């Protein structure tokens, strides 16, 4: 099942630029700034950094002061490229997950301007299979990619989780919301032209979440506990503005959203109100008290498919998404108390037929419990007979190839090198 999901995801969402718009060459780690420490301390620090990442230099882009790049290892075996833009005296760091059909070379100048105008540090990264990152693009890999970039910020650059703002654009809203739902000490989240889920981009009539859908943001956003800013263009013909509005409605801590009149999927940064509103948001969250601080280097990252604890669920407000799809744990209700031992013994003494009947009842009860455990699967099987998207995964993939979720020209399949580009109707 997981393999099919990854296959659908790859056909649906990922169009990495080919060839990549930049290159990388290995680079020596610079010595620590300030006074030279003892040789042993330096060796230990460099050894620890080497376990997490290694320094590289980007080629094909202009050199800029305060910009550096690293090759970062992920828990799924990929080595992704991340770039870090340092802003002097910045108190916040933005971890930026870009959209589709883009890589660090295409985002390079935007990240530098973003950092300078908003007075924040910025880390951008390429997903597995994008740019010079190794591996293959998949939903699961993007979750591991953002996790590795986050750990790099914390362990290499010494950034506290409480000072990190997660920024997700279009497809990047998937890994952004996934990480924010698992790490509750993140300072804030910005969603730029976000998606409710992959399938809902194709079919606006989809009202439930299917097992083969990807980036199920509609299910995860209620678990994000930090302030959420949503930015969306009203003329977006790739991801309808209703996606952003619904995610904003489901957020626990809503910040004033920005619906950019006339904005489409790829040009929101060109509107002056975009930077003004982001500045206002970042200024507001800087002034917010940081609740109980968690040690930045010690918090363990839960797996992306791990369900929240019962305590966390009980503290969260009741949301639409939680009503739509109860967790598996909630479907296993505790059995009602049976008759007392004395009462059972009486029946056993009175007749053996009763015991046989009770044994039969027990078997039926065990069968009922097994059917409850497989309720979701049975529901899916039933839907397979009536729902057109589920009946033809292959046709779904072919239809999805005609659109994308990205920064530039993302709604067209990249032209093949041997054939002229032909727009699809």
TrEMBL record:
Coiled-coil region(s): none
Superkingdom field: Eukaryota
Compositional bias segments (type: Basic and acidic residues): 325-335, 352-391
InterPro entries named among the record's database cross-references: AB_hydrolase_fold (IPR029058), Hydrolase_4 (IPR022742)
Occurrences of domain Serine aminopeptidase S33 (ranges): 92-198
Region annotation Disordered: where it falls in the sequence: 295-391
Record's protein name: Serine aminopeptidase S33 domain-containing protein
Source organism of this protein record: Lolium multiflorum
């Amino acid at each position: 099942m997981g393999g099919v999901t990854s296959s659908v995801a790859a056909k649906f969402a990922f169009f990495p630029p080919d060839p990549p718009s930049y290159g990388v060459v290995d680079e020596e780690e610079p010595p620590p700034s300030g006074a030279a420490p003892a040789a042993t301390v330096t060796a230990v620090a460099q050894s620890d950094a080497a376990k997490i990442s290694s320094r590289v230099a980007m080629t094909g882009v202009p050199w800029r002061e305060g910009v550096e790049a690293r090759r970062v290892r992920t828990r799924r075996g990929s080595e992704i490229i991340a770039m870090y833009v340092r802003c002097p005296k910045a108190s916040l760091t933005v971890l930026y997950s870009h959209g589709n059909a883009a890589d660090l070379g295409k985002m390079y100048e935007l990240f530098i301007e973003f950092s300078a105008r908003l007075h924040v540090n910025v880390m951008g990264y390429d997903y597995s299979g994008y740019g010079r990152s190794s591996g293959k693009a998949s939903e699961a890999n993007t979750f591991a990619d953002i996790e590795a970039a986050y750990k790099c910020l914390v362990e290499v650059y010494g950034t506290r989780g409480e000072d990190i703002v997660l920024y997700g654009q279009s497809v990047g809203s998937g890994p952004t919301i996934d990480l924010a739902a698992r790490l509750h000490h993140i300072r804030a989240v910005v969603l730029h032209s976000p998606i409710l889920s992959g399938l809902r981009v194709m079919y606006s009539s989809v009202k439930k979440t299917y097992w083969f859908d990807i980036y199920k943001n509609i299910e995860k956003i209620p678990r994000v506990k930090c302030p959420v800013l949503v930015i969306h263009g009203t003329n977006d013909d790739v991801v309808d503005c209703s996606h952003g509005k619904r995610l904003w409605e489901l957020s626990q801590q809503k910040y004033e959203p920005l619906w950019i009149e006339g904005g489409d999927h790829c040009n929101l940064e060109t509107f002056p109100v975009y930077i003004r509103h982001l500045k206002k948001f970042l200024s507001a969250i800087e002034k917010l008290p940081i609740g109980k601080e968690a040690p930045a280097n010690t918090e363990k990252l839960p797996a992306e498919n791990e369900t929240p604890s019962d305590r966390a669920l009980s503290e969260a407000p009741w949301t639409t998404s939680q009503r739509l799809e109860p967790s598996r744990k909630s479907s296993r209700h505790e059995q009602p108390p049976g008759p007392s031992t004395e009462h059972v013994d009486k029946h056993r003494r009175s007749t053996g037929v009763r015991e046989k009947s009770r044994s039969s009842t027990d078997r039926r009860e065990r069968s009922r419990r097994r059917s409850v455990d497989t309720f979701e699967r049975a529901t899916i099987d039933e839907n397979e007979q009536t729902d057109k998207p589920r009946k033809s995964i292959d046709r779904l993939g072919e239809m999805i190839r005609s659109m994308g979720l990205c920064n530039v020209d993302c709604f067209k399949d990249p032209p093949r090198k041997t054939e002229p580009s032909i727009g699809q109707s």
